[in-house]
Design brief:
Shape: globular
Radius of gyration: 20 Å
Mean pLDDT: 97
Bound molecules: 5-S-methyl-1-O-phosphono-5-thio-D-ribulose
Distance between the termini: 47 Å
CATH architecture of the largest domain: 3-Layer(aba) Sandwich
Largest sheet: 7 strands, mixed
Length: about 350
């Protein structure tokens, strides 16, 4: 597989009234696309992480609503909209932390309401167009984010990344992983240390897969090896994605991100989080208000093992995300540039319209 084949791979697409998505739970061993048509199948695909990564979930949700809207029987607008909202709220209940899901569902909802006086076909076409626009905008945002991220890299750098913020988690390039592909293209010599990312192994199964296929030099490590690798001087920066950014710069990302940032700060290594503006929750003041998803216990004890690795009566706690305090971040890389602390001031400069809109809600 070439660099371009990885960065341009399409993991979510629409084929008529079918939502086609790569089943990420089967990687790296099996490449299988699923044809989804019902709300239940779509909910399950998000819940089970067949489609995952904050921007990819948003793109998926846009297409999902455009397709599901066409299944609603012909009726007056209020009856249509009642059913439309039921489906939208149902999809929104699949995973709570990544704000892209609710952000894109709200955006689609707005389009439905704006077109309430149009014909049914015109309304459905407006939803189709919005879903397509969400996808195209994500491609452009990921490219810009990757370019800004590249400006942070120099020859000889080692970078640690956590979870997966690559093409598979977005539309193209990825966010925190995007700079690695651009570095490869530009001939900047870097080495990526990939946290395996317990318990669902997004680093091992997805990130090391994508980087290896693209020819980006990388080494897989267990999450608890990060401190040693940093102490050995092999790491000059930490890059990870995000699922929701609060206005003060607190960042929710895959569980383990916060610990990694604390260790990096101990060694004086800069930590950058990467995300498009669709991942900034302008209405969320701090990380305290970000809902943290809790997942089933069997993901810790059983999944990926041949036999259970703890007694059945052993209790597990499985939060899927944590919040990295803004004080631990050197910067947040967005499509409009790198936000530096104090983040609320940088966001106000980079995203004045969104900040103003949030203030008026
Ligand atoms: O549970 P996941 O695999 O959906 O978690 C994903 C992450 O934490 C990513 O880092 C984040 O969504 C950014 S993807 C560009």
């Amino acid at each position: 597989m070439s660099l371009e084949a990885v960065t341009h791979a399409v993991n979510v697409r629409r084929e008529g009234n079918v939502l086609v998505t790569l089943d990420q739970t089967l990687l790296p061993n099996v490449t299988k696309y699923l044809d989804l048509t019902t709300a239940e199948e779509m909910w399950e695909a998000i819940y089970s992480l067949r489609v995952r990564g904050a921007p990819a979930i948003g793109i998926f949700a846009g297409y999902a609503m455009a397709i599901l809207a066409r299944q609603i029987p012909e009726s007056d607008f209020d009856t249509f909209y009642g059913e439309y909202r039921r489906l939208s709220d149902y999809l929104n209940s699949s995973r709570p932390t990544a704000v892209n899901l609710s952000c894109i569902l709200k955006r689609m909802d707005k389009v439905a309401l704006e077109n309430r006086d149009k014909s049914r076909e015109a309304l459905l076409e407006a939803l189709d167009a919005e879903a397509k626009a969400v996808h195209e905008e994500d491609i452009a945002m990921c490219r810009k984010i990757s370019e800004y991220g590249l400006s942070l890299l120099k020859n000889g750098d080692g970078i640690i990344t956590h979870c997966n913020a690559g093409p598979i988690a977005t539309s193209r390039y990825g966010t925190a992983q995007g700079p690695f592909y651009l570095a490869k293209e530009a001939g900047v010599d870097i080495h990526v240390f990939v946290d395996e990312t317990r318990p669902l192994l997004q680093g091992a199964r997805l990130t090391s897969y994508e980087l290896t296929k693209a020819g980006v030099p990388c080494t897989l490590i267990c999450d608890n090896m990060a401190s040693l690798v940093m102490k050995q001087g092999k790491v000059q920066a930490v890059f990870f994605g995000c699922d929701r950014i609060a206005r003060n710069g607190d960042v929710a990302n895959k569980i383990g991100s916060s610990g990694l940032a604390i260790i990096a700060n101990h060694y004086g290594i800069p930590v950058y989080s990467f995300g498009p503006s669709t991942t900034i929750d302008f209405q969320c003041p701090t990380g305290e208000q970000i809902p943290i998803e809790e997942r089933p216990q069997n993901e810790i004890k059983e999944l990926f093992y041949e036999k259970p690795m703890a007694l059945p009566e052993v209790a597990c706690y499985n939060p899927a995300f944590d919040v990295t305090d803004h004080s631990l971040l050197a910067g947040i890389v967005t499509e409009r540039g790198i936000a530096y602390p104090p983040f609320s001031e940088s966001f106000a400069k980079l995203f004045p319209e969104q900040m103003k809109e949030a203030d008026h809600v």
